[in-house]
Amino acid sequence: MALLQIDNLTVEFETATGWFRAVDGVSISVEKAEVLAIVGESGSGKSVAMLAVMGLLPWTAKITADRMLFEGRDIQNISPAERRKLIGKDIAMIFQEPVASLNPCFTVGFQIEEVLSIHLGLDAKARRARAIELFSQVGLPNPEERLNHFPHQMSGGQCQRVMIAIAIACNPKLLIADEPTTALDVTIQKQILDLIMALQAKNGMGLIMITHDMGVVAETADRVVVQYKGRKMEEADVLSLFESPKSNYTKALLAALPENATGDRLTTVSAFFDGNPEPAPGVSA
Amino acid sequence: MTDNTMLEVRNIKRDYELPGGLFKPKKIIHAVKGVSFKLERGKTLAIVGESGCGKSTLARMLTFIDEPTGGDLLIDNKKVDTRPGHLTQEMRQKVQIVFQNPYGSLNPRQKIGDVLGEPLAINTDMSAAERRDRASEMLTKVGLGPEHYNRYPHMFSGGQRQRIAIARALMMNPKLLVLDEPVSALDLSVQAQVLNLLADLQDEFNLTYVFISHDLSVVRYIADEVMVMYFGEAVEYGTREEVFSDPKHDYTRTLFKATPKADIESIRARIAKKKAAAAA
């Protein structure tokens, strides 16, 4: 049984000119301890699809799916109270902007202990001990002292480490990382990716890595889903995706990588692909 | 050789003073601690480094936004008097800048035509009709059309906005263009288009680029010379081949190691390693 299984997910938003389809019939499944990367440009619906899974979209969004199962359990029509029990405990998410996703009014210690008290019901002493343990696990120096710091007192990389510590606080079965390193420097990116991958291997988590960076995909993923304009273009294991991409869009993306430049101009996606996404079928999972 | 030098920087420095409080002594931050380089006409120098290493401060000094606290800046073999009020208009026109975030660098209440016409209105005595012609012409050059003249920035995508920012920078026919992370806010596919545009424009106008970036794969593609900055100092400086084939400084090596590799061999190696770890 897959850890997370989504069949034919569609998300629509109402706009002045009618319904806009942000995600169009996407099916995704993640196995236990598997790393799935979802790649796409901005506007390809990769984040929206995952926010729909988490139930974090505003009520104006229309979400339909044939099936949305987490460990065989339906997560599409569960009550908000049940969802709150699940989210943050079994499914956790790391967001793109670490500094913006922490609450500036509370210490990071408070924010991590909040998760521990709500989901695990630990008492104050145990919470503190666990928070210190988590902080040292994600490689924050002086974890005890850090608990009393506010987000603005830390760098972007450190804030992202705090976010990761909060996300893994309850040993989630599935971690969704939405562009976890886009806002960070390459050297810090490397550290954060190494950290996420080490935690994933150690805890046997399923991991969904949302990114637009083909380098990050190459370094982390087992399997890759390529999305374009809300549709799934291709799904393949990482090696075959890079070695023999099937869809034209993936080919175009790989050709646009500066390191694959031949001659003195880059191949642009539009030159390759001419804006005509081939019909989505043919990429069945 | 010397007449072909577009830009020369000698031991340039910039300190920022943090004012002290009642009990706090004032503090001086050395953002750029003496950087020197020379750049020939029509070439591209890439400056690489992490955030806070002083690369943007250097860009601000090259474009006269910030005054250096020490050192010399020579453009076209002429020493630039960077003191406020001493800059000639001619010098200002020679150097232009393109900023990182095309969403922040265009005024949302200004039409594109006015964005492009403004430098001309300020610096020249062209008539409105002439300005309009020049702006439309420039729009075509950067891959947009005259029909975009009356539109507002919000009607454009990120890549198109960056084209507009580039067009604005080119309106005064500059010789030196400072590009401060021009493609880091853009998608991969759009990034390729903008990089191609920059290459085309460089050929057409014989422009000299100072290209600031943290993405080594982009740098490798576009640069003739590369400078790596670390904590305000240039720790590595040489031609692209020198820097990429034989990095001298530890930091440069760390940087290369940290850059994700998307070639098939490294993916194979990683998967093999993972399998071995799982089997053990």
Give a verbal description of the structure.
The complex is a heterodimer of chains A (285) and B (280). Chain A is built from 12 helices and 11 strands. Chain A has 285 residues and is an alpha/beta fold. In chain A, strands 7-8-9-3-10-11 form a 6-stranded mixed sheet, sandwiched between helices. In chain A, strands 1, 2, 4, 5 and 6 form a 5-stranded antiparallel sheet that branches. In chain A, β5 and β6 form a beta hairpin. In chain A, α4 packs across α5. The two termini of chain A are 15 Å apart. The model of chain A is unreliable at 277-285 (pLDDT under 50). Chain B has a single domain (2-279), classed as Rossmann fold (3-Layer(aba) Sandwich). Helices cover 39% and strands 25% of the residues of chain B. Chain B has helices at residues 55-62, 89-94, 112-123, 128-141, 158-170, 188-205, 216-222, 240-245, 250-258, 264-279; strands spanning 5-18, 27-40, 44-48, 70-75, 78-79, 95-98, 176-180, 208-213, 225-230, 233-239. Chain B is globular and about 75 Å long. In chain B, 41% of the residues are buried. The mean pLDDT of chain B is 89. Classes of the chains: A alpha/beta (285), B alpha/beta (280). The A-B interface holds A 41-42, 156, 185-190, 193, 201, 212-219, 238-239, 242-243, 252-254, 256-259, 261, 264-270 and B 50-51, 158, 187-193, 195-196, 199, 214-218, 220-222, 254-255, 257-264, 266-268, 270-271, 274, 277.
